[in-house]
Amino acid sequence: MRAAVVTEFGTPPTCRDVADPQPRTDDEVVVDVLAAGLHPRVRSQAGGTHYTGEGELPLVPGIDGVGRDEDGTLRYFVLPDTSLGSMAERTVVDVRRSVVLPEDADSVTVAAGMNPAMSAWIALRRRIEFTAGQDVLVLGATGNAGRLAVQVAKHLGAGRVIAAGRDPERLAAVEADETRAFGELGKAADVDVVLDYVWGPPTTEALRTIVTERADRGRPLTWVEIGSVAGPAIELPSAALRAARLQLVGSGQGSVPTRDIVAELRALVPEIESFRIDARPVPLQDVESAWRDTGSTQRVVVTP
User: Fold this and answer.
1) What is the C-alpha separation between 140 and 252, in angstroms, rounded?
2) How does pLDDT run across 89-111, given as a tens digit for each residue?
3) HSE value, Cβ hemisphere, 13 Å, CA-based, for 149
């Protein structure tokens, strides 16, 4: 079969022939892959930089997708960390980590949207005590995951959703109640929850601003670290933890059990096509050129 193959970390995959996959347990089935999203998580997997990686090469990237099993059932699936990912004509799926889709589901939309939407959905439903009516600030709201985080927060009952980003044009297109540049975060200081897709130096500055400019520093503030597009580390002044009622948590693989993630997949699948998702399907044979195109705001979906 044909698959995208990474032979050196940090280089784009190329389309080549590989052996057909074989199930190893009674819970595994082979699926014909219809669509697989090129998420930032997939890029870090192929770059050898994700914290769950095991450094195994060659590697077929892809952590999720939509496929049809031998019985004709359409499934959205999430793969464990394995060298055989979803960017292939076929892959092996553990049915316990999959959700059956309606026959008329749009495979490209589901593959493009589930991973980024899941980041905010799971953070708000499984990682913190979020209640309807709370105000949410999304840092990094101009990316795919950030734009969906705004929509997810609204869907789950946020009272006010504020989007923050660096690109004014992209920020203006985000469907939030308010938008703020990073230099204006003092005006968004009195939120209850921050969903942070940025991290790095921008978060260092944002934390200082928001903590010091809150009208009531005793009001709980929960800061959820989800992504790190601006850097892997921040400088955290001790005063930030003492001067306000601040809770810092992370949301991702490890901090949320797999069983909880799968349970939320079942809840999210019926909602996913109600969100605005900007996807661009790309044939598997063109994966190398699509991989190099990092300037688009659309979520690339590889279609074998």
Assistant:
1) 17
2) 999 999 999 999 999 999 999 99
3) 33
Which residues on adjacent β-strands are paired with residue 76?
66, 99
3-state secondary structure the chain: CEEEEECCCCCCCEEEECCCCCCCCCCEEEEEEEEEECCHHHHHHHHCCCCCCCCCCCEECCCEEEEEECCCCEEEEECCCCCECCCECEEEEEHHHEEECCCCCCHHHHHHHHHHHHHHHHHHHHHCCCCCCCEEEEECCCCHHHHHHHHHHHHCCCCEEEEECCCHHHHHCCCCCEEECHHHHHHHCCCCEEEECCCHHHHHHHHHHHHHHCCCCCCCEEEEECCCCCCCCCCCCHHHHHCCCEEEEECCECCECHHHHHHHHHHHHHHHHHCCCCEEEEEHHHHHHHHHCCCCCCEEEEEC
77: which DSSP letter?
E
Neighbours of 26 (CB within 10 A): 7
Which run of H or E residues covers position 155?
A: helix 144-155
Q: What angle do CA 210, 213, 217 make, to 5 degrees?
A: 90
Long-range contacts of 100-103 (CB under 8 A, 24+ apart): 100/73, 100/74, 100/75, 101/66, 101/74, 101/75, 101/76, 101/269, 102/74, 103/74
Tell me, yes or no, if the pTM score tops 0.85: yes
Q: Residue 261: enclosing H or E segment and its boundaries?
A: helix 258-268
Which tens digits make up the pLDDT trace of 192-222?
Answer: 999 999 999 999 999 999 999 999 999 999 9
Residues paired with residue 283 on neighbouring β-strands, in sequence order: 303
CA distance linking residue 301 with residue 109, whole number of Å: 9
C-alpha 226/C-alpha 124 separation (Å) is 11
SS (H, E, C) 23-59: CCCCCEEEEEEEEEECCHHHHHHHHCCCCCCCCCCCE
